[in-house]
Design goal:
- By secondary structure, the chain is α+β, with helices and mostly antiparallel strands.
- The protein contains 14 helices and 37 strands.
- The strands form 12 sheets. Strands 2, 3, 4, 5, 6, 13, 18 and 19 form an 8-stranded antiparallel β-sheet that branches. An 8-stranded antiparallel β-sheet has the order 9-10-11-12-20-17-16-15, with no helix packed on it.
- Helix 4 packs parallel to helix 6.
- The protein is elongated.
- It starts with 8 loop residues before the first strand and ends with a helix.
- The N terminus is likely disordered.
């Protein structure tokens, strides 16, 4: 990655594993925590509808370089910027030592230990602390329509004066990087004592300003800019990344309260439009259903970006917009939630950002270049358009269907020179150092999961897309029907012959043109569920049974049969180790959507509903007790107990589990 000229940083790439264990020496004081969290290192997430976010651990000890109170999605330069790391609280209640509510890992010790005073956490997020007769509630939310975080404090039980020091810690660096003490940081703070106390700083050239303000209380801001050096991130260390950085503090808010009160601190890139923060909704005492929780979780991924586009953030904390992820997530995020307009918005946005006439893997965003390593993104666009077309008669769909016909023509014309259409109509991917499907991990320039030649999912999506294209072209482009009718028929006639393994009883994952690879993977599910794929019913039943026996787990589907010599049971270790396991047995929750659709197509809806109920129960427990509370993670280990890993909040995991949950009914 090319860093912006303003940033002095140590380089650090990203792809992640998340551990659910306390660091050595961390207090095991969880008895008072709510049932929503079983470990203090479970995570929380807050977003603002623009892709900006806050994220951290319940005990407020940062374990990732991504943990912080404000990461700005579109800062106007380069990649997202992690602006604010923390807002410290120091309470002087007349005892010998001040009471701190936050924590840092310094490598050999965790200090201070704010979690010792934590009695309850609720995933708004809201923390409740008790000490020295006081009950202090800390609530956090991101402002709608602005890149700003509000932190509200409520103090109860006061019997005398309490002095507080509230100190912001800032990073102001690209999201994937680490920073360290440097002379380029501009620590000057301009103070404005108007209707609300406001302190403004401009940390680096071309970086948004940081506007810090206090609301609902009277106090002052004391400037004393300096660095905290050597904050340690345990989970970055476990994943083999650089694991320590320095944080800058420009000073602290100081105030004295004489009685019970509430007030807020706001940290943002622009001044507030109001002195009153947007109110959080009250915590409901009524048990929410799994579908309702997933529906809430889905809102984190649908974002309105500055150029008016609707986009999908693939996952938090380190993913941005990925076309493949957006298209797989679209049925659950939009169609299953009756957000048809947003589905159209997403498809139109992608259609407007084609690369060489194809849908890129990662569209260009500002001055961040695109990534075109994904032939399946264009095929998934056709599939998503077909699903959306069934839900609306909007004239907007007609233009999207035209775009699909163009995509078919571009693929056939060699827009990606590595992909060809053979004389029988099959898609063939040349052999080489690339990975053009969702199984895209590369190690030392070579695909960990080689899917070149004829891939079953690419060809199922291609054939189904041709059938859809022929239907649309009857009105939109008659010459397309004449050109592609015979090719579609030939491909249909030979599809099962190409991929079916009679002795094994399932569809091979790939075929190099001479022989099949014989691997049992979930990609064959596309051939079982998509319309227009001719297969004998008995073969579909055998293939589904093989997937059920070897790939289905309580939290999703394995990416490779455990019987395969290449199977990797655990997703952990450094980046190379994780990449080698990523699609070689690791479980992905989003594949449940394909599986449920395949069961419905082959065995009926009631069979799918019955089979999914225990799986949904296991994922409900995951959402409420581990990983990122209120979200569904990216992956799980292939072997029991299926520990979560990867991004702790993933769009296609949430969307497909939500879609399956709605299919299963109440």
């Amino acid at each position: 990655m090319i860093l912006p000229s303003w940033f002095p940083a140590r380089s650090d790439d990203e792809s992640g594993l998340r551990l659910l264990s306390r660091p050595p020496g961390a207090p095991d004081d969880t008895a008072g925590l709510s049932a929503a969290a079983t470990t203090p290192d479970a995570e929380w997430l807050a977003t603002n509808g623009r892709g900006s976010f806050a994220m951290g651990a319940i005990d407020r000890c940062p374990r990732r370089k991504y943990h912080g109170l404000l990461t700005v999605r579109e800062p106007g330069v380069g990649e997202p910027i992690n602006m604010v790391a923390e807002l410290e609280e120091w309470f002087d209640v007349g005892e010998p030592d001040e009471v701190a509510l936050h924590s840092y890992d310094w490598g050999n010790t965790v200090e201070p230990r704010g979690v010792e005073h934590l009695v309850q956490f609720e995933p708004l997020p809201r923390w409740t602390y008790r000490f020295s007769g006081l009950t202090v509630t800390r609530e956090l939310w991101l402002e709608d329509g602005a890149d700003a975080v509000w932190v509200r404090y409520s103090i109860e039980g006061s019997t005398g004066p309490v002095s507080l020091r509230l100190r912001p810690l800032i990073r102001c660096r690209p999201i994937h990087e680490l920073t360290f003490a440097n002379p380029f940081m501009n620590g000057q703070v301009d103070i404005d004592d108007g209707d609300s106390l406001r302190a403004v700083m401009h940390p680096y050239k071309n970086v948004p300003a940081l506007v810090m303000s206090m609301h609902g209380a009277t106090g002052g801001f004391h400037s004393d800019g300096h660095w905290y050096e050597g904050v340690h991130y345990a989970w970055e260390h476990d994943r083999g990344y650089d694991d320590a950085e320095d944080l800058f503090t420009p000073g602290e808010f100081r105030l004295r309260v004489e009685q019970d009160c509430s007030f807020s601190i706001r940290l943002g890139t622009e001044p507030p439009s109001s002195h009153e923060g947007q109110m959080l909704s009250a915590v409901s005492s009524r048990q929410r259903s799994f579908v309702q929780e997933l529906d809430d979780a889905a809102e984190a991924y649908l974002v309105e970006l500055t150029d008016g586009r609707t986009g999908v953030i693939a996952g938090y904390p380190w993913f941005g917009e990925w076309s493949r992820d957006a298209l797989i997530a679209l049925p659950g995020l939009c169609l299953a939630r009756d957000e048809i307009g947003k589905a159209l918005d997403i498809l139109e946005s992608l259609a407007g950002r084609l690369e060489n006439g194809l849908v890129p893997n990662i569209p260009q965003s500002g001055d961040v270049p695109s990534n075109a390593e994904a032939i399946d993104a264009s095929l998934l666009f056709i599939w998503a358009t077909a699903l959306t077309s069934k839900r609306t008669r909007s004239r907007r769909v007609t233009e999207l269907q035209k775009s699909c016909l163009d995509l078919i023509e571009r693929i056939a014309a060699g827009a990606d020179p590595r992909v060809h259409v053979d004389p029988e109509g099959f898609l063939f991917v040349d052999h080489g150092p690339w990975a053009l499907t969702w199984m895209d991990a590369l190690v030392d320039g070579r695909a960990v999961t080689p899917r070149q030649g004829y891939a079953v999912d690419l060809n199922a999506l291609w054939l189904s897309g041709l059938h859809a294209g022929l239907r649309w072209a009857k009105k939109l482009r008659p010459e397309f029907v004449e050109k592609w009718g015979e090719t579609t028929k030939k491909l249909s006639d030979h599809f099962e012959e190409k991929f079916w393994l009679q002795d094994a009883g399932f569809l091979t994952d790939t075929h190099d043109g001479h022989q099949p690879d014989g691997k049992l993977r979930p990609n064959q599910l596309w051939a079982l569920l998509l319309p227009g794929i001719p297969m004998q019913k008995a073969h579909k039943q055998r293939a589904l049974a093989a997937v059920r026996e070897k790939l289905l787990t309580p939290v999703g589907l394995r990416t490779l049969s455990p019987d395969d010599p290449a199977y990797q049971p655990f997703y952990r270790g450094g980046q190379t180790d994780r990449d080698r396991a990523y699609h070689q047995g690791t479980v992905w929750p989003w594949l449940l959507g394909l599986y449920a659709d395949a069961v419905t197509a082959v065995e009926g809806q009631e069979a799918a509903r019955e089979e999914m109920m225990p799986v949904l129960a296991a994922l409900s427990a995951h959402l409420r007790t581990e990983g990122c509370i209120g979200q569904v993670g990216e992956v799980f280990d292939g072997n029991a107990p299926h520990r979560p890993g990867g991004a702790p909040a993933q769009a296609w995991s949430v969307s497909e589990v939500l879609r399956v949950a709605k299919m299963a009914g109440p």
